Amino acid sequence: MKHNFLTGNPGKVVLVFAIPMLIGNIFQQLYSTVDTIIVGNFVGKNAVAAVGGTFSIQFLVLALAMGFTTGMSVVISQLYGAMDYERLKRAFSTSAIFSLLLSIVLGVTGVLVINPLLTHMLQTPAEIYADSYTYLFITFIGYPFTLIYNMYAAVLRAVGDSKTPLYFLILSAVTNIILDLVFVVAFSMGVAGVAIATLIAQALSCVCCHIYVGRKYEIFKLTKSTVVFDTELLRGIIRYGVPSAIQQSVLSLNFMVVQRFVNFFGADMTAAFSVVNKIENFVTMPQMNLAMALSMFAGQNIGAGEEKRAKQGVIDVLKLQTVFWIVIVFVLPMVAGSLIRLFGMGEDAHVMAIGIEAIKLCSKLYILFGFMQTFSNFLRGVGDAKFSMVTTICMILIRLPITYVLVHMIHYGEMSIWVGMGMGWFTVMSMNMVRYFKGGWRGKAFVQLKKS
Fold it and tell me: From residue 296, how far is each of 26, 89, 232, 368, 419 by CA, in Å?
C-alpha cells in the first residue's frame, strides 16, 4: 500500500492524488481523441461523425461495468480505511472473477444490439452508418480488455495508488497513436484501422496491469489458493454498484436521445458535436479527477471514522474547482477555433461556427459541472449510491424535455443541445448540495462509522 488519505492537509492530499489520475485520463482520452483527429485529417468529415456518433452506444453497454467498478472501489476503499485486509483480499478476488464474466456478457450483448440501436434509436444518417457499425463491432470485441483494466485501476486507486495505472495508460496510448498512423495513413484502413489500433492498445494495458499487480501487491495476487468468490462481499459490491449501474444506464440512454436530437440537424452538426465533446472531455477532466479523488478520500476517512476530515475535503475541492473554472472561462473561448482545427474541420465553415459557439457557451457552464461532480462523488464515496442514482434520473427528466422543446417547438437551433445540458447539471448539483448539507448520507457506509 503506497498511500492513504488519513493524514495531511485534505485539499493538498486530494490534489496530489488527483494529478496522476488526471494525466492517466488524458492519455486514456487520447484513444478516442486521436482516432477522431486522424480520421478527420486523413479520411473526412463523415468518418469523424461516425466515430463520435457512436459514443452513446458504447456508453450504454459500458454502463453496467462502470457501475460495478464504482461499487467495488467504494467497498475496497472503505475496507482499506478500516484496515480489514482479510476481507480486502476476498473482495478483490470476487471482483476479478465477476469482472471477467461481466465483460464477456457485455461484449457479446454489444455486438448483438449495434444494428437496432444505430437504425432505430439514433436514426444514424445513411452516409455514416457503415463506418459507425464497423467501429462499434470492433470496439465491443475489445470490451473484456477494457473492463479488466478498469477493474485493476479502480482497485489500485481505492487503496491510494494512482500512479501505476498511469504508467500503463501512457504505454497503451502511445501504442494506439503509432498503430493509428500505421493502419490509417500507411494501410488506408479508415475507421476500421483506428478501432483495431484501440483494441490492441487496450489489450496491452490490461495484460501489463494484470502482470504488475500480481507481482507487486501480495494482497492482490491471484493463485489457486487465494481465488475465492465471496457472495456476501459481492452483495456488498452490488449494493453500491447496482444504483450506480442504473444511474449510468439511464445516463447512457440520455446520451442516446441527445444524439438523436443532434442527428436531427444533419451530418455537420453530428461532426461538430463530436469534436466539441472531445474538447470538453479534456477540459472537464481536472474537475472530474478532483471529484474522483475526493470519492476515494471520503471512502477511506469514513471507513476510519473521520467524518469531519471527509467533509473538510469537500470544502477544499470546491475551492479548487472554482479556481479552475475561472481560468477556463477566460482561456477556452480564445482558443476554441484552434482546437477545432486540430480535428481537420478548419475548412468547413458551418462545423467551425457551431463548434466555436458551443465552446463559448459551455465554458460558462463548467462551474455547475465541477460542483455537481464534487458533491456526487462525495456521496458515492461514503456509500450513498441510491441518492446519486435518483439525481441522475431527475437530471434526465429535466434535460430531455427542455431539449425537445428547444429543438422541435421553439426551434432555438443547435445550441439547444448545450442549453439542455447546463440545465441538467444545475438540477443534479442543487439536489446533491441539499443532500450533503442535510446529512442524509450518514449511515450509508459499507464499513460502519467508528463511535467516538
Answer: 20, 18, 22, 22, 32
Backbone conformation region of residue 425, classed left if phi is above 0, alpha if psi is from -120 to 50, else beta: alpha
Q: How far apart are CA 131 and CA 140, in angstroms?
A: 14
User: What stretches of 181-306 show up as alpha helix (H) in DSSP?
Assistant: 190-216, 231-264, 267-283, 285-303
pLDDT 10s per residue in the chain (452 long)? 455 677 778 888 888 878 877 877 777 676 667 777 787 788 877 777 777 777 777 777 676 677 777 777 778 877 877 777 788 888 888 888 888 888 888 888 888 888 888 888 777 878 888 888 998 899 889 888 888 888 888 787 777 776 777 788 788 888 988 998 899 888 888 888 988 998 998 899 889 888 888 787 777 777 777 788 888 888 878 877 777 777 777 777 777 788 889 888 887 888 888 889 888 988 888 898 899 888 888 877 877 777 888 888 899 999 999 999 999 999 999 999 898 888 877 777 888 999 999 999 999 999 999 999 999 888 888 877 778 778 888 888 888 999 999 998 988 889 999 999 999 999 999 999 999 998 878 776 665 444 43
Task: Kindly state the cell numbers that stand for 250.
Answer: 439511464
**CB-CB contact of 447 with 310 (8 Å):** no
pTM above 0.70, yes or no: no
